[in-house]
């Protein structure tokens, strides 16, 4: 795999936002992620694919230290954002997560109004000075999540009253509102119908202009549609990482080929 | 959508340096955590203070002060005709015995050479409990041959003297107390030194009946424990089958309609109806309407049954519901009827959970006081009820009501008794809950 | 005949029926139990049930109704003139019962024969000695009507007992016979048996409904009785509570209601924040080791009977508050006070609030916590701004239930709040509550039919209504909440 990674670097046009080196994750005694090295480029969509249980979600949750909330989980190795180790003792995960936002598999709007859902992050991080600025942030975030036109007349109604696709876009707006640099998405479309999925995929492509996006998906078609780079995980190992086109048309590892042709997974 | 920067793009410093706002937020986080810890501390401290208060006040009730006397059972007083016929000897009341005991104590004081200035005969006589004469009389009547002999008797000391030995009464308080004099306390010291005044484990407190207002030293919990036991038997016999049957119906058979919904709301509401309302029900229905006797365990048992039923039905239904449907399907699959499925398979599997709920319900019923006050269990009962089933209809006391009764009496000796009774009650509850927990840990299955 | 013997006879008939039922089924199937529709045991069991259940049911109903019917009949024999000054009809009736028991005892001991007894008159000296030998002390002079009533009571009771015995045995036999006749190999004994069991199950679940009906009936009936003797307007509007032995009482509910609400308020002010914070700490922060120790410890508080809390208020908290707060601050000299009762009740309610809130907080889905953490919220921000708002309906339900508990609590206020009915703001004053007065009015010495006693039922009615509203409200709120996350 060593040679493969070299090939990726040359393929990368943009500078790296996140670099992970030798990452190991243990759940109790279970070795869930084995020695993974990945570079996430700035303003690019990177897709993690692989069969279920391969560790792609676990690795994603390492990138904003969400695994900290699981007591038995232990992370080793080095993950840097803009050259700073996020697992450094001095780093407060609260500050980190403001810069690395996350969207989950199931839409999880808070039981508050649409406005308060989006305003939650700016409020707790103190990003605005007054109500007018907050209004502006909320509007911008909802526009970025392509939801503004649908909800602008009912910002005070509860976020849980929206449809599934709208809820997920609300969650994206909520994550975008803290102006993160990286947006992690954990199978963001798996609970949505095809039309809502198409809307969210379109949105992801637009988000690329401002953020680097990392998306975990179980759908290879989705990875092919939205991502520029793809990483294939299998049994906790990073098997292959490269340009999406190359991975899907010309995989170098036989396991990758087996997966994309449907023989494993 | 090309606008890359939000209106107020926050200043992005290094991740390594924690900014001021985050520091403030973390301080708030610590404070909040501390509030929680303090609240937990308050809860735990309340528990500890409550238990130590009751224990420290009540432990002394299990030890009782007695006088050990050499006493001549004078035949001229106790059996004038000299034929040792218990029927005739019953004519001698406790007053006659009392005089003999007084005399015996006086002689003992004189014989030991105890001299206390200003000690009157009345002081000496008042060292002895009013109950002492009855104790001796009972002993003589059960064994008339003792008359004329000199025997060693152990009789209760007066409650104040008992209090002195337990630290409740002091020389200072005796000055102000019309029921005890400092000289009596000095005499008590002297008698103790001579070994005539002794403190021993108080079995009568657990087995004996209650005593009157003026004799805290003689009061016991026997009738109350028996009364509570009778009520628990009734509650168990009635509420186990009815509760299980109702739960089976509601959980397994009841169709989902407005009626069963009403029954369910009704049961949850009954579980939260104030217990005193059940007392009113008992008074109006069981005593005034059905004419059952007051103060009887049967009425208490019925009232507690009605109160306990909803509290049993809820955990029983949970236990039945926890049996996985696969068990039911397996039984139905081999052609068992629904009734057979439930009684042969579901019920036995749910039994540990049901019994646990049952015991906890019984423990709650055992500690319940308010409804029993209204059905006349506050009455002063000295006689033990007969053996069941007739005994269910005899007047009896109940453990928690006895506590209440004692707190209403003026003599401070009863405060100690009440706390002691609480200890007995808590021991019973502890045992019941321990059994319930054991049962659950031992037999409960997690599916 | 003794009831226990009667029950044994019925059970014997039923047992015989069981054996015969099995036998008949088996012989009908030519001795091959495979030819039977149901398992053989069911044939015996159906006969057993038909022989025992209707008979025992009859026995129970009869025993319940008989004293009432006889007393109604016998009571009619007593003239108003027979009721002594200051007494009541119920007292005379209990004399009649005692007299009847005395006569029974006299006959049982052989001191008198039935025939001689019939001839006895109220004035006879012989009667007095007979009764005193039987352990019945006659009070004042015995009125002829009372003696006649006692005799009638005796003969009615005996007649009824005889009829009962005959009827119960007959029902048992007929039941056994009828069900035996139906036994044949094709007889669906299991279905019959199961229908029977199902009926029993339904009957059991109706006990709860009957209990509620009984509560409402007894409260309503005696409350109406009360309002006939005492104007409802005064009860609901008067600001004084001052019952008198000799009539002319003021029985206004307001001082009691105020005391009830004040004590409950103090209790909730203490218990809700503490309980809620405990729930939050245990579910969100505490290490597993602390939780396994602290959660059961807090729940012990819930298992302690209220009489223990009452005693705690009476001998520890009350004197403590009086000596260290009320007296130094010049606020009161009573150890029983709103504060005493409220504080101790608050302790009692802590586990109630905390365990209900704990359940509710745990029901908030993890995904909401994740969502909040992923934005960079701290744990306390997540708790305060996401979890608590999400759990709010459930927590409101828990607080309503706790309030209902506080309002209905009896022993703590009886022993800790005092007995003085006052409308006062000072929490270190003794005040009284609805439950305290229910206890004192129903355990006092006043006559049952007086407004001073009957007011307890009206108070009970108010108590029942208040708690009912709170309970149902809480139930609805919590149910809605649970549905939201299912």
UniProtKB/TrEMBL annotation, chain A:
GO MF assignments: ATP binding
ABC transporter domain location: 18-260
Xref: SUPFAM superfamilies: P-loop containing nucleoside triphosphate hydrolases
InterPro entries per UniProt: AAA+_ATPase, ABC_transporter-like_ATP-bd, ABC_transporter-like_CS, P-loop_NTPase, PstB-like
Keywords linked to the UniProt accession: ATP-binding, Nucleotide-binding, Phosphate transport, Transport
Classification via PANTHER family: ABC TRANSPORTER I FAMILY MEMBER 17
Protein name: Phosphate ABC transporter ATP-binding protein PstB
UniProtKB/TrEMBL annotation, chain B:
Bilayer-spanning residue ranges: 34-55, 229-250, 270-290, 296-314, 346-367, 418-439
NCBIfam families per record: 3a0107s02c
Keyword terms, alphabetized: Cell membrane, Membrane, Transmembrane, Transmembrane helix, Transport
Lineage, top ranks: Bacteria, Pseudomonadati, Pseudomonadota, Alphaproteobacteria, Rhodobacterales
Ranges where the ABC transmembrane type-1 domain occurs: 225-436
Family per similarity comment: Belongs to the binding-protein-dependent transport system permease family. CysTW subfamily.
Keyword Methyltransferase: no
PANTHER family reported for this sequence: PHOSPHATE TRANSPORT SYSTEM PERMEASE PROTEIN PSTA-RELATED
Membrane-topology annotation of the record: Multi-pass membrane protein
Descriptive protein name: Phosphate transport system permease protein PstA
Localization: Cell inner membrane; Cell membrane
UniProt KW Electron transport keyword: no
InterPro entries, A to Z: DUF3333 (IPR024573), MetI-like (IPR000515), MetI-like_sf (IPR035906), Phosphate_PstA (IPR005672)
TrEMBL record, chain C:
InterPro entries for the chain: MetI-like (IPR000515), MetI-like_sf (IPR035906), Phosphate_PstC (IPR011864), PstC_N (IPR022182)
Pfam families linked: BPD_transp_1, DUF3708
Localisation: Cell inner membrane; Cell membrane
Protein keywords: Cell inner membrane, Cell membrane, Membrane, Phosphate transport, Transmembrane, Transmembrane helix, Transport
Mode of membrane association: Multi-pass membrane protein
Transmembrane among keywords: yes
Start and end residues of each ABC transmembrane type-1 domain: 257-474
CDD domains for the chain: TM_PBP2
Domain of life: Bacteria
Listed transmembrane segments: 45-65, 162-184, 196-221, 256-280, 300-321, 333-353, 454-478
Described function: Part of the binding-protein-dependent transport system for phosphate; probably responsible for the translocation of the substrate across the membrane.
Family under the similarity heading: Belongs to the binding-protein-dependent transport system permease family. CysTW subfamily.
The protein's name: Phosphate transport system permease protein
Protein source organism: Defluviimonas salinarum
